[in-house]
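step: validate -> pass
step: tokenize input -> pass
step: predict -> running
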Amino acid sequence: MTAQISIDSVTKTYDLWAPVYDLVFRGVFERARHAAVAATNSVGGRILDVGVGTGMCLPLYAPTTRVVGVDLSEKMLAKAREKVAEQKLHHVEGLEVMDAENLTFPDASFDVVVAQYVVNTVPHPEVALNEFARVLKPGGEIILINRIGAEDGARKTFEHLLMPVTQRLGWRSDFPWARFARWIEQADGMRLLERRPVPPFGHFSLIRFGKADTMGQERNGARAAG
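step: predict -> pass
step: emit ->
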């Protein structure tokens, strides 16, 4: 499927959403958001929140973590910065305008990369996933909340027909699990840890990918050899 989503369209869409985003989406995605934060806090350490938006998750991350948030929309980030200042969120290291497909961080910079409702909104999802894996430390996790499209049947047909509309809104309706499955097959050192449905509607999933701890593997290999 040829990607029709552009960075400009995504940025403009979320700039428009910024003033009302919390009001519209806070309740709808609350349970999924808390599931992602709980999974992230269970790993801890240094966190990259890709598509941090207005920063609804920032107060929920454990104060012992260190969080960097990135987003394409400066207007969304302005709302996030207000939360950081008003709530004195000292665990937030920084908030930056950045493209998920071109992260400027060095390799192995974060213990967790969390991205909620992001992968099916970028022009090239697999490129973004590769970037998440690149900046992740060995032993770390990628934690996603993402809509999973139907593999077949009437819902798949409907999602495909809806694509011209959803693309103009900055996201894909037709995004089956097969795309994640193909990515994990070719992603060096990555494995699926968990996939489970989360509200609303059962069309969204919490997905956790783990990156192999190469040092741990080397230690285990040395013990076996000994």
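step: describe -> Residues 7-219 form a domain with the Rossmann fold fold (CATH 3.40.50.150).
step: cleanup -> pass
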